[in-house]
Write a structure and sequence with these properties.
Layout: H1 2-22, H2 36-48, E1 56-57, H3 61-68, H4 70-77, H5 84-90, E2 95-99, E3 102-117, E4 123-137, E5 141-153, H6 156-164, E6 172-174, E7 178-183, E8 187-199, E9 205-212, E10 215-216, E11 232-241, E12 244-255, E13 271-285, E14 288-299, H7 318-325, E15 331-342, E16 346-356, E17 372-382, E18 390-399, E19 413-414, E20 417-418, E21 427-438, E22 441-454, E23 486-502, E24 507-520, E25 543-551
Antiparallel strand pairs: 1-10, 2-3, 3-4, 3-25, 4-5, 5-8, 6-7, 7-8, 8-9, 9-11, 11-12, 12-13, 13-14, 14-15, 15-16, 16-17, 17-18, 18-21, 19-20, 21-22, 22-23, 23-24, 24-25
């Protein structure tokens, strides 16, 4: 019996050693590329783990890989391939280098698809070449760099969404990616680079410096900080002690609203501004987590021309600093978030962000414009109806007019895109998501419906839906109600079926369909931002879009607007 137990223990040890050899990133300080669909495969284990913190994303491999069961999951998908080509296609990174106290992986990937839509574009294409390098030096320092080069033709509604935000020196702003130049008559050409170093000096802290995106929350959307906007430079410090996790994020942002400077030689469309955020996560009980959030947006219009040094302090109340520095020194928001386990595999979550408010006016019914807030309520059901691998999610979001918008560059945005919710403000939204994963197969269905109030063409008044418009252009201080202005009804149904080819780099084939209905009182135009017309209106017609392709799913691609 002792001999048999020894053999079992030795075999288990060899299997674990082999798994670590195959997936060295699982014990590294690397970020797990944040994609809602990818995370749904393994996130149940993280939610159920003792004293885990789930709001700050992307997760770090060595913090969550054991709870998520990543070694077991990926190893179960490996195919018995002996040839070099078979191993590289189905199991391994393209190039791997390993030595004493270091390793390096390199992949050349594609996000390539072809589709058909019923709008004026007709045939859609996306051709993204991706070069990804990641590795580790010693046990505490990890690094990653990814380059994307893309040519694409989007369906009509995305094309017009891009063109209506066209900057002075570009063909448009690609959602989640940034500025683009033209490609053919209706296409776009753009490149993105992301990268970071991640260092864990001790068991309490992780430090990151890089160019990318961050997300705070347990929902599909975030009212606090999301990955909607283009990648940006950031420094991130995460400290975990006992039941508390404290995260600081400093970001270097760009404002594309060039109307703030009449001299085009100053390139004011790319004027620098800064975001500083901190989030405290507290596991009050094994089933209840409570979080506190604070953020500041400031610009370089002061005498320093750079981020004010007070905001570099990792343990300070930013709102008080904002007040001390002066009314025009920046704009702050505060928020709370919570998560509660209900039953065996079910979780409810919420976020509340407060932009500005007047205590005297907050509980009155006069529609005071300065009571600006955002609310989220949601629930996740893992292994729903006792079906292993089935995740159901429901979420409701509501944002009051003028929330996230301020004077000058202090809007809660980067490169023409919101730092929080994709829709900006002045809306309500309901989301229903079903994700099912089994072995290499995945099915994702998402329904988004809601209403939003846009500004009105030819009317200089701000109705509170465009966070880039100066709030001083509002009609009055009172009688400001959610959904005022040019009211639009929005329905977006997105279905995708995928098959995972390589678990090491998440390369997969997919087929998808998107059905969209968008109707408004009048056409959506660009209002309140000079120039007030780019010659385009936002599509108000129905969309039917079908596509097939391959992708690596290294980021979230939001197209539900």
């Amino acid at each position: 019996m002792k001999k048999l137990l020894s053999i079992i223990v030795l075999t288990a040890g060899l299997v674990q050693a082999q798994e670590k050899e195959i997936f060295p990133e699982h014990s590294s300080q690397l970020r797990i590329p944040f994609n809602h669909s990818t995370y749904s495969v393994f996130e149940k284990g993280i939610y159920e783990a003792e004293n885990s913190h789930t709001a700050i994303k992307p997760y770090i491999y060595n913090v969550v890989s054991k709870d998520a069961g990543l070694d077991t999951y990926k190893s179960s998908l490996l195919k018995d391939k002996k040839t070099w080509g078979g191993r590289k296609l189905w199991n391994e990174h393209l190039m791997e280098a390993k030595g004493k106290d270091y390793w390096l992986n390199l992949d050349v990937l594609l996000d390539a698809s072809v589709g058909k839509e019923n709008g004026n574009i007709g045939t859609t294409i996306e051709n993204t070449r991706i070069l990804k390098v990641e590795g580790q030096l010693g046990k505490k320092l990890s690094f990653s760099a990814t380059a994307y080069e893309t040519q694409a033709k989007f369906p009509q509604y995305i094309y017009e969404y891009i063109k209506i935000q066209q900057p002075e020196d570009g063909a448009g702003i690609i959602p989640g990616r940034g500025k683009a130049k033209g490609f053919g008559e209706t296409g776009f050409d753009y490149g993105i680079s992301t990268g970071y170093v991640s260092y864990t000096p001790n068991k309490f802290m992780n430090v990151q410096f890089g160019h990318g995106q961050n997300f705070i929350g347990d929902g599909y959307r975030s009212m606090l900080l999301s990955d909607v906007a283009a990648p940006r430079t950031y420094a991130k410090l995460t400290t975990t002690v006992g039941k508390v996790q404290y995260t600081n994020i400093w970001t270097w942002l760009r404002d594309f609203n060039y109307s703030i400077d009449t001299d085009p030689t100053n390139n004011a469309g790319h004027k620098r501004k800064y975001g500083v955020f901190h989030h405290l996560s507290w596991n009050v009980t094994p089933k209840f987590n409570l979080g506190f959030f604070e953020g500041i947006i400031s610009d370089n219009s002061g005498t320093s021309g750079s981020m004010q040094v007070e905001y570099l302090n990792p343990i300070i109340f930013y709102k008080n600093i904002e007040f001390a520095n002066g009314e025009d020194a920046g704009s702050g928001v505060v928020g709370v978030d919570a998560k509660l386990k209900v039953g065996k595999n079910n979780y409810v979550y919420t976020q509340f962000l407060l932009d500005e408010f007047s205590a005297d006016e907050f509980f009155k019914s006069g529609g005071y414009w300065g009571n600006k807030y955002a609310l989220q309520l949601g629930a996740k059901f893992f292994d729903a109806f006792n079906v292993k691998g089935l995740l159901l999610q429901a979420e409701y979001n509501r944002v009051k007019p003028f929330t996230y918008s301020h004077e000058k560059q202090h809007n809660y945005a980067h490169f023409g895109q919101s730092l929080a919710h994709l829709w900006g403000s002045n809306f309500w939204e309901a989301i229903f998501i079903a994700r099912y994963n089994k072995n290499r197969w995945g099915v994702n269905t998402k329904i988004v419906l809601g209403q939003k109030g846009f500004d009105i063409d030819g009317d200089a008044t701000s109705y509170g839906g465009n966070i880039f418009v100066n709030t001083g252009t509002r009609a009055s201080d009172y009688n400001q109600e959610t959904l005022q202005g040019n009211l639009a009804d929005i329905l977006n149904v997105d279905v995708e079926v995928s098959y995972l080819i390589n678990p090491s780099n998440n390369f997969k084939v997919f087929a998808g369909a998107l059905l969209r209905n968008f109707s408004s009182d009048s056409s959506i135009t660009r209002v309140g931002i000079a120039p007030e017309s780019t010659g385009f209106t936002f599509n108000t017609e129905d969309t039917k879009w079908f596509m097939v392709g391959v992708k690596a799913d290294l980021f979230n691609n939001y197209r539900d607007f």
